[in-house]
Write a structure and sequence with these properties.
The structure holds two protein chains of two kinds.
Chain A (H helix, E strand, L loop, with lengths): L1 H21 L3 E8 L6 H20 L7 E8 L4 H14 L4 E3 L4 H13 L4 E3 L14 E3 L4 H15 L3 E7 L2 H13 L6 E8 L7 H8 L6 E5 L7 H8 L6 E3 L6 H7 L7 E4 L15 H15 L5 H20 L3 H9 L4 E2 L4 E2 L15 E6 L2 E4 L3
Parallel strand pairs in A: 1-2, 1-3, 3-4, 4-5, 6-7, 6-8, 8-9
Antiparallel strand pairs in A: 10-13, 11-12, 13-14
Chain B lengths: L2 H32 L6 H15 L5 H24 L7 H23 L17 E3 L2 E3 L1 H23 L1 H11 L1 H6 L4 H27 L5 H16 L4 H21 L5 H15 L8 H6 L3
Antiparallel strand pairs in B: 1-2
């Protein structure tokens, strides 16, 4: 009798063991985003984008029949919170992968944690140090800042500009950009004659604009920042009656900054992903369809214009979903699936990852744009 | 340094200075009647700007600003009535912690109502690129608005405190609360009134400076720190001192840019504050006797 019971039990166990793979499961994804706090202009659109995408995926029946559960943690751009959330997501929630953090500073703090826990991290931070040197589990979706710098310098060479001033915000993004600008300038024969860093909480920058303007050598200004204060620079420059060309970084890719700077934004030249000019792209462009789909559904749902920042989260999510589709709920397999991804169109560009390149974008991901009549348009000279 | 550049720095400094001074005066009004520092003062500035921006969709600019100021005054009164009024002889520390809590609460409310993006009122005259020339330096006409409105508020406040009976009652309450009560002044109402006044001033300042500095849900903290610095620098409780100290700090900040990198601007401001407090702990314009009587 006892033997029979054991056999029965074994049978039940065996059946249930075999039954598991066929049953639909819930795949847990973590996200650490600065939905509030000083970087909320990044984290806000990112968090909303992810919520929208998860809803869409689950409404379609999930990935291979598996529902996606997204756990969004609001780090408020604090590296300490990012660290504890990363540990919590990995150890307690046992998520498959983490999307975010929004800023480069936070990402660098949790890079090693994710690497050691063998959990794929798809960062929305822009700085190049995130993927250079490469950590095998860490990826990032925003374009590299060195490519943005090169795009700007190439444009300056065409315009015959050789002496410039650099203004940068005092955030991780601003510092990394300033470093790249100074490093790459000699390659293009450009001399940086003035460098200033401004606070992310600046109210008015007319004093520093007056200082730079007093240097008669300056032929153009690069304003490299991702915080709202960057919109103050064009205003103060134009109010001072100074009309040299103003270049900005890809951190300017939010139409709200143009609105904030108003008439002073006219003529600002900057590199950015093609999301901002989606409707003017040619039909053959591999990104066009998804850019339009993303910006339309985002704008319809949240009643605000889509920004490239939300696009970084879109890319991280769609890349992850594509990887799960082939690799299933397995951290290692998902990691290698991402690394082997080729010609994957996203909002930031067409991604081709490799063992050495965990960003997957080339210089073509950037398009030079100019502000015209309060809108972004492609810059052709 | 050319004279043109000198004036440019000076005007930039006056712009910063007037903004700091107005926030500092807001601190002073409440300090005088209650003896506490209201750390939610910066949030009044934020509410003023944000409410005006929202109202602008429905009405012309002057009306939107007027209504925003009134609404912020109501918020100020509600804060006092809900959180401060019912406390029986609260300690200074407890009240300060309450105001810090209110400040955090206000920011959370604002981020839920308006979101995290930056907004701004349109320029009162011209637009973002309009500028006028003063002695060879060029500034935005909005700067004149900020300076004029700050000056006007300062003068009106002075007249209010000196000539009206309510103003005199508030001052009586400030110099000796117990004696004021004995004279039949309702000190609790005076405290509410001081919150209303400083909320209104903050809101108006928030509206005039919005085109220059933008309005954002978390703009209050930075302003409160600068305003607090200025209030201490000028001597707590002294409105004239706040204006002088505000302009001084603004001008020093502006000129510091010509010598050291911009990044050190705040460091210089704080260093000056420390030096002055070492030499004159009562502030530049505060009296020694008065500060000895104060609770901190």
């Amino acid at each position: 009798m006892k033997k029979l019971a054991t056999k029965l039990l074994m049978a039940v166990v065996a059946v249930s063991l075999f039954a598991v793979p066929a049953m639909a499961e819930t795949i847990k994804i973590g996200a650490i985003l600065a939905a509030t706090g000083p970087a909320s202009f990044l984290g806000g659109p990112e968090a909303r984008t992810l919520e929208m995408l998860v809803e869409e995926v689950n409404a379609k029946g999930g990935i291979n029949g598996n529902k996606i559960e997204l756990i969004i943690k609001d780090s408020a751009a604090s590296p300490e919170k990012a660290i504890s959330f990363a540990k919590q997501l990995i150890e307690e929630e046992k998520v498959l992968a983490i999307i975010g953090p929004s800023t480069s500073g936070e990402t660098m703090k949790i890079k090693n944690i994710c690497e050691q826990a063998k959990t794929p991290l798809l960062s929305c931070g822009a700085a190049e140090v995130i993927v250079n040197p490469v950590a095998s589990y860490v990826f990032k979706t925003p374009q590299k800042d060195s490519y943005a710098v090169k795009k700007i310098y190439m444009e300056m060479n065409k315009l015959g500009i050789s002496k410039i001033a650099v203004l940068a915000g005092n955030t991780g993004f601003g510092k990394a950009g300033k470093g790249q600008l100074l490093k790459i300038a000699p390659e293009f024969g450009i001399e940086i004659v003035e460098v200033e860093v401004y606070d992310k909480k600046s109210n008015d920058l007319s004093a520093v604009v007056a200082k730079i303007k007093a240097n008669k050598d300056v032929q153009a200004v690069i304003n490299w920042s991702i915080v709202p204060a960057q919109a103050i620079v064009p205003k103060n420059m134009r109010q001072a009656g100074w009309d040299v060309p103003l270049f900005q970084s890809h951190g300017f890719g939010n139409i709200k900054y143009v609105e904030a700077a108003g008439a002073a934004a006219e003529g600002i030249i900057f590199p950015a992903g093609r999301l901002l000019i989606a409707d003017t792209l040619s039909v053959n462009n591999p990104q066009k369809a998804l850019l339009l789909a993303y910006s339309r559904s985002y704008e319809a749902k949240f009643k605000e214009p889509a920004s490239t920042f939300g696009g970084h989260a879109y890319d991280a999510f769609t890349i992850l979903m594509a990887a799960i589709e082939v690799a299933g709920n397995d951290r290692d397999k998902v990691r290698s699936a991402i690394e082997n991804m080729k010609n994957f169109p996203g909002t930031g560009g067409v991604f081709t990852f490799s063992k050495e390149d965990h960003n997957g974008l080339d210089m073509d991901a950037f398009q030079m744009m100019i502000v015209k009549d309060g809108k972004f348009v492609a810059y052709e000279k | 340094m050319t004279s043109e550049l000198f004036i440019q720095y000076l005007l930039a400094g006056i712009t910063y200075g007037s903004i700091y001074a107005i926030v500092a005066i807001g601190f002073n009004i409440i300090y005088n009647t209650t003896g506490i520092i209201n750390f939610a003062q910066g949030e009044f500035v934020m509410f003023g700007g944000m409410i005006a921006i929202t109202l602008l969709q429905f009405m012309p600019l002057p009306l939107a600003i007027g209504l925003a100021v009134i609404l912020t005054m109501i918020i100020g009164a509600l804060i006092e009535i809900c959180f401060i009024r019912w406390l029986k002889s609260p300690s200074v520390l407890r009240m300060i912690i309450i105001t810090i809590g209110i400040s955090i609460l206000s920011r959370e409310v604002a981020v839920h109502i308006w979101g995290e993006s930056i907004r701004s009122l349109p320029y009162f005259v011209g637009n973002e690129i309009t500028s006028i020339s003063i002695l060879g330096a060029r500034i935005s006409p909005q700067v004149l608005w900020v300076v004029a409105v700050s000056g006007l508020m300062f003068i009106c406040l002075g007249i209010f405190f000196k000539t009206t009976s309510v103003g005199r009652e508030m001052r009586a309450c400030a110099s000796n609360r117990k004696a004021a009560t004995l004279c039949g002044i309702n000190t609790k109402n005076m405290v509410t009134l001081s919150f209303i006044l400083s909320a209104g001033m903050g809101a108006l300042a928030g509206c005039v400076m919005s085109p220059i500095t933008y309005s954002q849900y978390d703009m209050g903290t930075g302003l409160a720190i600068k305003g607090f610095t200025v209030a201490i620098l000028g001597g707590l409780g002294s409105s004239g001192g706040a204006v002088a100290a505000g302009l001084l700090l603004g001008v020093i900040e502006a000129f510091s840019v010509s010598v050291v990198p911009l990044a050190f601007q705040d460091a210089i401001a704080i260093a000056i504050l420390l030096i002055i407090l070492f030499i004159r702990p009562q502030g530049l314009f505060g009296s020694k006797e008065a500060s000895a009587l104060k609770e901190f």
